[in-house]
Amino acid sequence: MSYNVITSSETVRDIEEAVFYKEGLGVYPENIVKFKQAIVSTIRNLADSPKIGSNLSARIDIETEIKYSMIDDYILFYEIEADTVKVLRLLPAKTNWMNTILKYF
């Protein structure tokens, strides 16, 4: 079964901000390209294997269907609804991402 993958506008903005931040830190251009490729690859793989990510409810005290996947020092959050995967956010792992992701409950 192949799932439809929908990427939110917030996720697109998050990706742009992550790349901008990495460029500002002076990350080598080839590593930025690898980071972008890892994001695209992860999102594309969700169409075939969305259940491969970890369950967020195992890390927090709230029951949720949201899953996550680590990409470098960022966390990609998504949820599966029927035959659709909704990519919610790409947030830095070293921030208080829980406050941001709680709005989806």
Automatic annotation (TrEMBL):
- InterPro entries named among the record's database cross-references: RelE/ParE_toxin (IPR007712), RelE/ParE_toxin_dom_sf (IPR035093)
Q: Which UniProt keywords apply?
A: Toxin-antitoxin system
Protein name (database record): Plasmid stabilization system protein ParE
